[in-house]
Amino acid sequence: MRIPSLRYDEIVKSASDSRPWPEARPLYQAKADMFKGLAHPVRVRVLELLVGVDELPVTTLMAETGLEASHLSQHLGVLRRHGLVVSERRASYVYYRLAHPEVAEFLRSARRLLSLALHDTEARIRASDALPEISGDAGVRR
Q: Is 78 domain-assigned?
């Protein structure tokens, strides 16, 4: 039996229409919100620290980020709300781990994309450096 192919926006719209507001928002909006949640260097650093380890206690995350407990807690809360990390309290310690292995792959993909963008920028700079000078340009720094 052949499954009919649907466009991405048709899937998103049908999923959105079946839910009451405020849950009825398009998937691309939810993605944008998740990216907003990632839009802080500390949160990205915390995720990178959690890649490749089973879990880390908050004390280690504090030491690695240099943040006070209250500031780190706010960032961890954002990551939890977006489903990127999970926590577990054991005795007087709280441990964090990535919620899904895909978070690590997402970070790797983002690093590859950044590397490609930097290569493109470097190539453009080299190309602009190779342009002939415009009269009156001598001594002008680019």
A: yes
